[in-house]
Amino acid sequence: MTMSSSSASSSRKSRISASVSNVMYTNAVYFPNYRVYKGDTPAQLNYGCINHVYYAFASVSPDGVVLLSDVWADGQAPCDGVEGALGSLMHLKQRHPHLRVVLSIGGAGSPEIFPVVASDPLLRDNFARSALGLIEASGLDGIDIVWEYPCSEQQGADFLALLAATRTYLSEDQYLLTAALPANKAVLACINLGEAALYLDFINLTAYDFFGSWTPRSGHQAQLYAVGGKDNETSASAGVGCLMQAGVPGKKILLGIPLFGRSFLHATGPGQKFKGVGGEEGAFEYKDLPRRGTKEQVDKRAVAAQCVGGDGGFVTYDNPDTVKMKAAFCKQKGLGGLFYWCAPADAKDSKRSLIASGFRALHSS
């Protein structure tokens, strides 16, 4: 190991302990590289209330090697006075010593490639080795695996083997290893979650997209509690319960908050038939909610915000009130904190910002 890399690792360790001592809870955000094309940059975010950025998404080649997915956006586009969004994040890390930047691997294209790579010992080794090489070269703090999602017992076992292989290269005292999993009992049942937690620093529970254009009826897309009377209805609290009952320590769970709303046209609330969806592919960015001419309401039983009418019909989302309630739930359950998808869609006004609201609620007594 060269002198520079060993000093880098010790500074990374001290940075880890410094960030933990200053902040009790994690408040993490995803920054997708395609947002660069919309004029969004990492420096536009408020790092006074963010301690982890998940930079999404790197891709995986058929031989298991982890690659940056957009060389221009990641390393060349003019961004905050430097080259590329990753370059900007590296500069921001120097200005904000508590900030940890994690490379998120996978995403939408991952259901095809991950089962192949995870089932083969050689490809798993390629994955782990190349992931380490990429984060060392970029000065990153770890990786986040977003396989959407292991959906059989065999894939669940292969997922664990991939985590084990990755952990052999990414030492625990130096690098973060996290994974995104859904608040979906059928998917979670495929994985030995207690064992997964031995390898992972955090499980990012994607506690949203419960309802959308693909479901037969409208519903609150990120409800904390199911109040539809159906015991098996998906909710964030049920997802957390699944993880904890399986032996995942609460402090290793980050609860996901969507920075977008789901639209159901010709519906006025949850549990209704609807005809079509508004917005872009059925979604509106949080900063564009509530829709013009509508009134925002909060369903305190489900813990969900909504607006009805205008061009969105029934739109279900989170607002500062629901995020405060979710933060209180995190504290009550001893969870690690919150994460948000995706940061550039948040409101700019700090009173309205969900990222700021969540941070304040997590760290208020």
Write up this protein.
This protein is of the alpha/beta class and 365 residues long. The protein has one domain: TIM Barrel (Alpha-Beta Barrel). It is 34% helix and 22% strand. It is built from eleven helices and 16 strands. It has helices at residues 3-22, 71-75, 85-95, 110-118, 121-138, 153-169, 185-188, 193-199, 236-245, 320-333, 354-362; strands spanning 26-32, 52-60, 66-67, 78-79, 82-83, 100-107, 142-147, 176-182, 202-206, 253-258, 260-264, 283-285, 297-299, 304-309, 313-317, 337-341. The strands form three sheets. Strands 1-2-6-7-8-9-10-16 form an eight-stranded parallel β-barrel, surrounded by seven helices. α9 links the parallel β9 and β10. The radius of gyration is 20 Å and the shape is globular. The termini are far apart.
